[in-house]
UniProtKB/TrEMBL annotation, chain A:
Lineage: superkingdom: Eukaryota
GO cellular component, one term: nucleus
Organism: Synaphobranchus kaupii
Cell compartments where the protein resides: Chromosome, Centromere; Nucleus
Lineage: Eukaryota, Metazoa, Chordata, Craniata, Vertebrata
Signal peptide residue numbers: none
A Pfam family per the record: CENP-M
Main localization of the protein described in the UniProt heading: nucleus
Chain ranges passing through the membrane: none
Keywords: Centromere, Chromosome, Nucleus
Protein name (Swiss-Prot/TrEMBL): Centromere protein M
Keyword Kinase belongs to the record: no
From TrEMBL, chain B:
GO biological-process terms attached to the record: CENP-A containing chromatin assembly; chromosome segregation
GO cellular component, one term: nucleoplasm
Subcellular location per the Swiss-Prot or TrEMBL entry: Chromosome, Centromere; Nucleus
A Pfam family annotated for this UniProt entry: CENP-N
Lineage: superkingdom: Eukaryota
Protein family (similarity comment): Belongs to the CENP-N/CHL4 family.
Protein name per its UniProtKB record: Centromere protein N
Sorted UniProt keywords: Centromere, Chromosome, Nucleus
InterPro entries the UniProt entry points to: CENP-NAC/CAD_complex (IPR052011), Chl4/mis15/CENP-N (IPR007902)
Chief site of localization: nucleus
């Protein structure tokens, strides 16, 4: 199975493609609806998948890949990690973004969030915290994804995904016991 | 009315919930309308029970009448206790033409011939099934009405549903059934569950089944369309495929309600490393038990949502295909224990 490459299809005029990858298929439909409703100027096409790789025939151009990880399930994180292997490395120049839900819940194992943060940091990708239960939370995250998408799809003059991601990428503090401080 | 009858009636009343009691008593038809009206259903149950006992004594009801109340209640609420299924095999010519009255008489005669103290009560249900309540006694004791066995049989079908049968009385019941239904033998189907109708539907294939087709049009039509043309499912074809596989294995619509599936493993322990267990010659015994309030629905969801791999393993799909939920899995032959693919 070949890797998914960002530039093997020509871009269309005024169009942005975003791929939402979520193993549980709980949140991606809500988010997709919110994204499509919010954007009026640009033709945004939202593609939904459980995991990568995508089927080989009819592989579309994809400007931004969003991995949705639910912290309440280990499988969610494992599936995202497995899917990452099917992405071409040039995606990690500002075309990948992670969404985390449920980080507010205190009973969940903290190591999951830590390992996800480390993963995002090593891949130079932004990590967005999300509230998936409320409509406000969904709209907020839709706006943030759209902002990243516009840049990643080259719709914002003078900005590129690489430039944005160098500003927004997740960083893990070098202090070994940083997680005990908050 | 003697003491044992009173005790049985008390136990029956105790089992029936208060809100269903009035309905049951009117179905019973052994109390006059006036007597039924004189009962206060808002009273506490023990007081109501005392009043009912005195009315029954007035009407001079016997054990026969009292057990009728229990059988009426059990027919209306069959999901109490677990039901096991047996299959009659080798039908004789008379089996096809057996009628209810004849079967009833023969069954009673055969059972009485086998064991002296036994009390049999039968009732025909609206759907054509015959319900048999058997209270077993010993050679020296009276039938124990507190722990009856229930048998449900649809005439002209080979299946018999049994609830509350002890190992001691199993051969007696089986022999009486085989003789009175004109069959050559009887075997255990290895299917059990709480819901009687579900077991019947599963065995007689009365649920909506899906068969493999070349062009699964119907599924494409049924799948929900995305709300917006700008939202596309990348794995739509796979999802369709999974749904089709799941429906082929477990059926669609409302599935029969099974609670458990038990797999008894008698296979050799397989592992990649060179551990202690892998080198043992004798089989590694274990039991895998799946339990759910609706097992088939859960398994179907596992497959259709992608949690289980898409071509359903024959171990799971044979629950519906073979109509059983107890399996013993052994290695194929003594020498060929390396071959994958267990023998069911």
């Amino acid at each position: 199975m070949s890797l998914l490459k960002p530039l093997n299809k020509l871009p269309e005029l005024n169009t942005a493609n975003v791929l939402l990858v979520e193993n549980e298929e709980l949140f991606q439909k809500k988010l997709a609806d919110a994204i499509v409703l919010l954007e009026n100027n640009v033709n945004v096409i939202v593609r939904l998948a459980r995991s990568l790789p995508l089927p080989l025939e009819s592989r579309p151009r994809i400007d931004l890949v969003v991995f949705i990880v639910h912290l309440n399930s280990e499988q969610s994180l494992l599936s995202a990690e497995a899917s990452l292997k099917h992405l071409d490395s040039s995606y990690f120049l500002g075309k990948v973004c992670f969404l985390v839900t449920g980080a507010r819940c205190g009973t969940l194992p903290y190591e999951r969030l830590t390992s996800l943060k480390k993963l995002a940091a090593t891949l130079n990708s932004p990590l967005l915290m999300t509230e998936d239960r409320t409509t406000e939370g969904v709209n907020t995250v839709a706006q943030r994804v759209l902002a990243v998408l516009r840049v990643a799809a080259g719709l914002v003059p003078m900005a590129t995904g690489l430039y944005l991601s160098s500003l927004t990428r997740c960083t893990v503090p070098t202090d070994p016991d940083w997680q005990n401080q908050d | 009315m003697d003491d044992s009858t009173k005790q049985v009636l008390r136990q029956i009343i105790r089992r029936i919930p208060l809100n269903k009691l009035q309905n049951m008593l009117s179905k019973w038809e052994h109390l006059s309308k006036k007597q039924l009206r004189s009962l206060e259903f808002t009273q506490p149950k023990w007081l109501l029970c005392d009043n009912l006992l005195s009315i029954c004594e007035e009407n001079d009801l016997s054990m026969k009448h009292v057990t009728e109340l229990e059988i009426i209640y059990r027919i209306d609420h069959p999901a109490q206790g677990s039901w096991n299924v047996c299959q009659l095999i080798d039908p004789e010519e008379e089996a096809v033409t057996a009628d209810l009255l004849h079967f009833k008489q023969l069954f009673k005669a055969h059972l009485r011939g086998l064991i002296s103290h036994v009390s049999v009560k039968t009732k025909k249900h609206e759907d054509g099934a015959i319900w048999i309540r058997i209270a077993w006694g010993d050679n020296f004791t009276q039938p124990n009405h507190l722990k009856p066995t229930y048998v449900v049989h649809h005439l002209q079908t080979p299946y018999v549903f049994v609830s509350g049968l002890t190992m001691k009385h199993k051969p007696l019941l089986h022999q009486a059934l085989v003789l009175s239904a004109h069959y050559g033998g009887i075997k255990d189907v290895h299917l059990s569950g709480r819901c009687l109708t579900a077991l019947r539907d599963l065995l007689m294939r009365q649920y909506k089944q899906v068969f493999p087709v070349k062009h699964p049009r119907l599924l494409l039509e049924r799948s929900p369309l995305p709300s917006n043309p700008n939202i596309q499912m990348e794995h739509a074809k796979h999802a369709e495929n999974r749904l089709q596989m799941a429906a082929e294995a477990f059926g669609e619509g409302i599935l029969p309600k099974l609670e458990t599936a038990v797999y008894k493993l008698e296979t050799r322990f397989r592992e990649n490393g060179n551990g202690m267990l892998g080198r043992r010659e004798e089989p590694f015994r274990g039991v895998v038990k799946f339990a759910s309030s609706n097992l088939l629905e859960s398994l179907k969801y596992c497959v259709s949502s992608g949690m289980a791999s898409a071509p359903v393993t024959p171990l799971l799909s044979s629950i519906t295909q073979k109509g059983r939920n107890y399996f013993v899995i052994t290695d194929k032959g003594p020498g060929a224990s390396h071959t994958p693919g267990p023998n069911i």
